[in-house]
Specification:
single chain, about 425 residues, alpha/beta, Nucleotidyltransferase, domain 5, five-stranded mixed β-sheet, two-stranded antiparallel sheet, 20 helices, 7 strands, about 10% strand
Length: about 425
């Protein structure tokens, strides 16, 4: 059997092929273009690569055009990133079959070189030997459908845009606190605060306290209407006019004007972040319902279109990816991990996990507390009887919901509250009586 390793770079790649004995049988230096990809595919075909028996490939990334070319057909592609392994990053492509990160890439390199110097051809050889010796310990890239991969791109981009929007809002809030606290006080009653279009319109109209004090009712009302407000305009106009005229400490006039210009620059970045998040959310809303698993995921309490798309993006639609629910729970970081050494043992939360899925799970279970009586009872029982903190109780609920989700996806069933959270025996007995 032949194994292929590719040391990925921005412009060129080094390729190494080894046989069962670890002997180097071929090596190439290819460019990152169509001509280079053809050379690679021809090289693989020369050494027995076919549709029925493709040569497995180990590469240092899970994305890009080269990976897309390699994933065509039935070929197994293993993404083994040395920095991810060394830094314990919970990326889905770098988690082992048991839910743990693969062995550090540098340990493999030291087997073949004592100098500890990096060599691209040598790293390609090491990657090929990783598959030869430990392929069973690594997880290939999942065989997801094209629609699932497209949803993953959109859902992750929307999640990143949401985080960027919040980061920009935090920077803007920090700046306003330095010279314009009246604006923060005026927008405090609104959900999402500075991310609201009304707040952004008013800040563009009055970037400094001096200009805010001169705003008329007509100007404030017009700003609210430009932001899309339909109701409650008169009441908010009066409240905002009074809040913006409250006497606060002020910066020197020239300094205040300079800070106002800095604020407008940050405001432009925030508006771009808000527009990107909204546009991507719309794209996710159009793509996600088309997937066959969407109906099952949306049947779970607390899972809407955006969160459901994020969950699908991380677990994919390859239902053979996880051998059982335990593997998915470990991947999501919801199940605890037990470490034992001699007479000592400890049970702790998982730090090596898919961070995106874990974050989506936290939001999911927080929403499920109000949408599912069974989820709320489970949470209260963990808090009251087991003494869990809030985060631990939510993690326990997430662990249970992940197991239910695995079952539903495997059997094509919708969520059923009575099966997911059956009544305790004593409660069921009293109800029957």
């Amino acid at each position: 059997m032949i194994y292929c390793g590719i040391d990925w770079a921005e412009k060129t790649h080094d390729v190494a092929l080894v046989d069962d004995s670890g002997q180097l049988v071929a090596k190439r230096h290819i460019t990152d273009d169509a001509a280079g990809y053809k050379i690679l595919l021809d090289l693989l075909a020369e050494y027995g690569d076919s549709e029925d028996e493709p040569i497995p490939v180990a590469i240092e990334t899970s994305r890009g055009l080269l990976v897309a070319v390699l994933r065509q057909g039935k070929r197994q592609v293993f993404a083994i990133n040395p920095m991810a392994a060394a830094q314990h990053v919970g990326d889905p492509a770098f988690v082992g079959s048991a839910g743990f990160l693969t062995q550090a890439f540098f340990d493999y390199r030291d087997r073949h070189s004592v100098s500890r110097k990096k060599s691209d051809p040598g790293d390609a050889l090491v990657l090929a030997n990783i598959l030869r010796t430990d392929m069973a310990m690594h997880r290939p890239l999942p065989d997801d459908s094209d629609l699932a991969r497209a949803i993953a791109v959109l859902a992750r981009a929307q999640q990143d845009a949401t985080w960027n929007r919040q980061q920009m809002a935090n920077q803007l809030r920090s700046l306003l606190r330095e010279y314009y606290p009246a604006a923060l006080d005026a927008f405090a009653t609104w959900t999402n605060g500075l991310c609201r279009p009304e707040a952004r319109e008013l800040l563009k109209l009055a970037p400094t306290p001096a200009r805010a004090a001169r705003l008329t009712r007509t100007q404030i009302s017009a700003a609210l209407k430009r932001a899309g407000r339909k109701r409650g305009i008169d009441a908010d106009t009066e409240r905002l006019r009074e809040a913006l005229r409250v006497d606060w400490a002020r910066q020197l006039p020239l300094v205040e004007e300079a800070l106002g210009k800095q604020m407008l620059a940050l405001l432009g970045q925030l508006e771009a972040s808000c527009a990107a998040a909204d546009d991507l959310a719309k794209a996710v809303g159009e793509a996600f319902p088309q997937h066959p698993d969407a109906e099952i995921l949306l049947s779970f309490p607390g899972l809407g279109v955006q969160l459901g798309a994020r969950v699908l993006a991380e677990i994919g639609d390859d239902h053979t990816r996880f051998a059982d629910a335990r593997g998915l729970k470990a991947y999501a970081g919801s199940s605890p991990i037990t470490r034992a050494s001699g007479k000592k043992s400890s049970i702790t939360r998982r730090r090596v996990k898919n961070d995106r899925l874990n974050h989506a799970g936290y939001l999911w279970d927080f929403a499920a507390l109000t949408a599912s009586p069974g989820a709320k009872d489970h949470y209260r029982r963990r808090r009251d009887k087991h003494g869990d903190w809030h985060a631990s109780a939510l993690r326990s609920l997430f662990n249970r919901m992940v197991g239910q989700m695995y079952h539903c996806l495997q059997h094509g069933e919708r969520y059923d509250e009575t099966l997911a959270f059956p009544l305790p025996l004593e409660v069921a007995g009293s109800a029957a009586a």
